[in-house]
Amino acid sequence: MATAGTKLTRVLSRFFINNVNNKPLKVMGSGSSFNGLAMYSTSASTAVKDYEDYRKSLYGDISHRALLVDAVGTLVVPSQPMAQIYRQIGEKYGVEYSEDEILNRYRWAYGQPWGRSRLRFMVGNGSTNDNLASNPNLPRYVNDGRPFWQFIVSSSTGCSDARYFEELYSYYTTKKAWHLCDPDAEKVFEAIRKAGVKLAVVSNFDTRLRPLLRALNCDHWFDAVAVSAEVAAEKPNPTIFLKACELLEVKPEDVVHVGDDRRNDIWGARDAGCDAWLWGSDVHSFEEVAQRIGVPV
């Protein structure tokens, strides 16, 4: 049974992990202050270990019953820089922007509040749905995501040629467009599943994700896929994480999510009640993920 001390450690560890604002904090009982980031640096490793020990005291050697994995940036990454591909394919369609210009324009376009943009989304038989267009919470990746990606491509390159868009859109469904972040992923995931831990992908993506996973021959690694285009909710909305838990038939508190985006993956998963580790910071390989869960590889 967990003691009061281990419960307190759990609270403190979550405080350390979540304290990323680097704001001065008052020391209780004194007039001095200290830097939150410095506290994090000196205490995080101890806090994380104590938290993992706490979980093992409750659940045994296996600390989590399910692992959720982000797709782009964690499971897979583009084989070539996005701006390079946009430029290469676009040359025959008259795209003249440099890769740096395309990248800057892409970042601007991607950062626009999609639901409040000037676009009007075509639905059904092609009629305009003003309710969708005025909805600030409209997911970017609805169904195949074409309206959103047409906006991104034309804004990034200045080219609205439908042939260019289709070639670019199709390219990102092919195996050559992507590679695995961790070449040992298959071996590790097999060990994790043999240990009884369920696996799911949780991704902000359109309906191309499932065909892409099949093209990469990794769709069979997972027990479920929760993709925003199907769930109608995007990370950091906790709905998509809860959907993954539902598909796996596990409770959020028994789940850990691994992703590379602090806001979308870490904050979103924790809002849903899941544990969360930041790829590239908390963990750097899926073997490390397995070890932290308690699965030998």
TrEMBL record:
| Pfam families named among the record's database cross-references | Hydrolase
List the InterPro entries.
Answer: HAD-SF_hydro_IA, HAD-SF_hydro_IA_REG-2-like
In terms of PANTHER family, this protein maps to: HALOACID DEHALOGENASE-LIKE HYDROLASE (HAD) SUPERFAMILY PROTEIN, PTHR46649
> How is this protein named in the record?
Haloacid dehalogenase-like hydrolase superfamily protein
The organism encoding this protein is Populus tomentosa (Chinese white poplar)
